[in-house]
């Protein structure tokens, strides 16, 4: 039992769990702001533009279509009559809220990514490996012996290789 409690304590105190908890709390508070933005600022003008006679000017949540062919003045009247209805206005409200919330989260993530520091490149190039040094010696020996014309060696061939002075090949190495 004690090891289970220790395991739970280790899990609960990890930074990721605390970060997640803070994110959920801030997200819930932010959702209230988005709800207010949609319901109090965006929906009244949109509802006004889309209103029909006797329609709700505040938001679209009262918009519905009755499937039984009857005409009801309000959504409450249709529900009281147990009429089958498709409440498309509430769905539109949720889509608008989601779009605003997703865009706001996108802007926040974009701002955080901009604030993150790019890794600073090191000023000193790493020392060449032994293999690179040997390849540079072979290249220089081939150029010195005339087996390869110096113009045949392109910068792409020597990228990342150390530069070394051309050392003539020893007489024993020549054919």
Q: How many helices in DSSP terms?
A: 6
Distance between the termini: 81 Å
CATH domain class name of the largest domain:
Mainly Alpha
Strand content: under 5%
What pattern of helices and strands is seen along the backbone? HHEHEHHH
Helix percentage: 55-70%
CATH topology of the largest domain: Non-ribosomal Peptide Synthetase Peptidyl Carrier Protein, Chain A
How confident is the prediction overall: mean pLDDT?
A: 77
Structural notes for this entry:
The structure is a single chain. With 175 residues, this protein is mostly helical. The protein folds into two domains: 7-115, Non-ribosomal Peptide Synthetase Peptidyl Carrier Protein, Chain A; 130-173, no CATH class. Helices cover 58% and strands 2% of the residues. The protein is built from six helices and two strands; from the N terminus they run H-H-E-H-E-H-H-H. The chain has helices spanning 2-13, 15-50, 75-80, 88-115, 130-145, 155-158, and strands at residues 65-66, 85-86. It has a two-stranded antiparallel sheet with strand order 1-2. Helix 2 crosses helix 4 (88-115). The mean pLDDT is 77.
């Amino acid at each position: 039992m004690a090891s289970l409690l220790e395991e739970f304590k280790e899990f609960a105190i990890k930074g990721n769990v605390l970060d997640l908890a803070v994110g959920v709390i801030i997200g819930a508070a932010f959702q209230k702001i988005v709800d207010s933005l949609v319901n109090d600022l965006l929906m009244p003008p949109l509802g006004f533009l889309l209103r029909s006679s006797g329609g709700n000017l505040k938001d679209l949540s009262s918009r519905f279509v009755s499937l039984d062919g009857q005409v009801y003045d309000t959504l409450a009247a249709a529900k009281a009559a147990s009429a089958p209805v498709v409440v498309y206005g509430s769905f539109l409200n949720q889509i608008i809220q989601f779009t605003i919330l997703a865009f706001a989260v996108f802007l926040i993530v974009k701002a955080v990514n901009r604030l993150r520091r790019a890794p600073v490149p090191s000023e000193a190039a790493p020392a060449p490996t032994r293999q690179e040094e040997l390849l540079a010696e072979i290249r220089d020996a081939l150029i010195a012996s005339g087996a390869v014309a110096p113009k045949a060696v392109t910068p792409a061939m020597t990228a990342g290789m150390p530069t070394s002075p051309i050392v003539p090949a020893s007489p024993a190495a020549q054919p």
